[in-house]
Automatic annotation (TrEMBL):
This is Beta-glucosidase. Pfam families: Glycoamylase (PF10091). Keywords: Signal. Residues 220-434 form the Glycoamylase-like domain. Residues 1-21 form the signal peptide. It comes from Dyadobacter frigoris. The keyword Metal-binding does not apply. InterPro entries: Glycoamylase-like_cons_dom (IPR019282), UCP028431 (IPR016883). Transmembrane segments: none annotated.
Length: 450
């Protein structure tokens, strides 16, 4: 009994100190307790290909079975009720062609869901200069405030939604009246976004938010390097409200000031902040934008994304903060739920929490490392991490905590990026958009896909 009390006391001490540590330069502040992970397989072994299909199919249920019954849009998380997310819905839309091609649903079923979604977005959803709010009431289309002053347009979330809609437009390419009407409705939404208006008084930068009640008070310019390349790519590609190259260069790249060039774990990071930031920086924009052989005056974007991912991987493998469980099998830091909150986890803001979406959405960049992580998550952690809609959002082996949440913005990239690794379908669809080819060339990008 005395030993049990000592163990519990030690765990409480570790929890109190472990959760506060986020400084990669002070590993000595954590004294971990080694929990023995049960190494037995919790599920029957299947082929790697079958496992990838299983993960895609199970995760797709979040968008298909749990989609809002009125609008068809994706709920923000599994406890959100009527609150749907514009960006997460864009990710969900991108999963529909995948589900059809993988025979999870029929083309007719996918088309029917797309009709519901697009009709709601076109007719029912409140828009601000053509842009969508971050959160929407999935039953009424009203804006739901994301924060005190964020009750209007969110241009970045809008860009994730448009990325999905253009992918679907390219997929549903039939000559019949239904698919033709769907494409026309998508074009109406796409053409209605006033990207250039978000320059705020014609500045050479785009702004993230605008509110009908607070105007530009959020005052957040969209500057790189982060998850927002897709916003500038779409803004430059708009047939109706395009921005000039000067907005991209002065705003997004800061005339080249977004370059890094330093080495971490022997790996050079071309762009961005120290250690690359959370992994969604190399994932959200590249659900549709194919980084393969994509270059400009600043970098090769596949190299950027691979190196960012490998730095994140090597940080977890090296484990400077000595968190229990971090290894070459258990890695991946990105924005996710943490105990009692949410955090943009990264090597410079590490709370000891691993998010499966981080490693699994990196499959196109690190297929070997991502497959090892997938097998660990599925076979070794089993149903503590695996549920009705695929992998739960996050977990900590340091404190033996497992989330019971699912988030649309984390589930979607798993399906999409696994498919980009397997067949490249989402990349092929989005990059086939003629407007994207023109717009990205105007920004100085070069690629065989353009």
């Amino acid at each position: 009994m005395k030993n049990c009390f000592q163990i519990v006391l030690l765990l409480l001490i570790v929890f109190a100190f472990g959760c506060k540590s986020d400084d990669v330069k002070q590993p000595e502040i954590i004294t971990p307790v080694t929990f023995q992970i049960d190494s037995t397989n919790k599920f029957p072994i299947i082929s790697d290909d079958a496992l990838l299909t299983l993960v895609q199919k199970q995760t797709f249920k979040y968008f298909w079975d749990f989609g809002h019954p009125v609008s068809g849009l994706a709920r923000e998380r599994n406890t959100s009720g009527d609150v749907v997310t514009s960006g997460g819905s864009g990710f969900g839309i991108m999963t529909i062609p995948i589900a059809i091609e993988r025979e999870f649903i029929t083309r007719g079923q996918g088309l029917e869901r797309m009709q519901k979604i697009v009709a709601f977005l076109k007719t029912n959803t409140l828009k601000f200069h053509g842009a969508f709010p971050h959160w929407i009431n999935g039953a009424t289309g009203a804006a739901v405030p994301f924060s005190a002053k964020d009750d209007g347009a969110d241009l970045v979330e809008t860009s994730y939604l448009i990325q999905g809609l253009l992918t679907a437009r390219q997929y549903f390419n039939g000559n019949d009246a239904i698919e033709t009407a769907l494409r026309n409705d998508i074009n109406t939404i796409w053409n209605g976004v006033e990207w250039d208006w978000f320059r705020k008084n014609n500045e050479n930068v785009l702004y993230w938010h605008w509110s009908p009640n607070y105007n530009w008070d959020m005052n957040l310019p969209i500057k790189g390097w982060n998850e927002c390349l897709i916003t500038y790519a779409l803004a430059a590609s708009s047939p109706t409200h395009a921005i000039p190259n000067s907005v991209y260069e002065n705003g997004w790249t800061g005339n080249g000031s977004f370059k890094n060039g330093n080495s971490y774990y022997g790996i050079t990071l071309p762009l961005g902040s120290a250690y690359g930031g959370p992994l969604f920086f190399s994932q959200y924009s590249f659900l549709g934008i194919n980084p393969t052989n994509l270059t400009d005056q600043y970098t090769n974007y596949l190299t950027q994304n691979q190196n960012h991912t490998l730095i994140n991987y090597n940080y977890c493998k090296t484990n400077p903060l000595k968190y229990n469980g971090y290894s070459e099998l258990c890695w991946g830091l990105t924005a996710s739920d943490i105990q009692d909150g949410y955090n943009a986890n990264s090597p410079t803001s590490d709370k000891g929490v691993i998010a499966p979406t981080a490693a699994l959405s990196a499959f196109p960049y690190t297929p070997i490392e991502s497959m090892k992580a997938l097998k660990f998550f599925y076979y070794k952690l089993g149903n503590r991490l695996w549920g009705d809609y695929g992998f739960y959002d996050s977990f900590s082996l340091q404190t033996t905590w497992y989330a019971n949440s699912y988030l649309a913005i984390d589930q979607g990239p798993i399906i999409i990026m696994i498919e980009n690794h397997r067949s490249g379908l989402p990349w092929k669809l989005f990059m086939s958009s003629p407007e994207i080819k023109t717009g990205m060339k105007n920004l100085g990008f070069q690629s065989p896909n353009l």
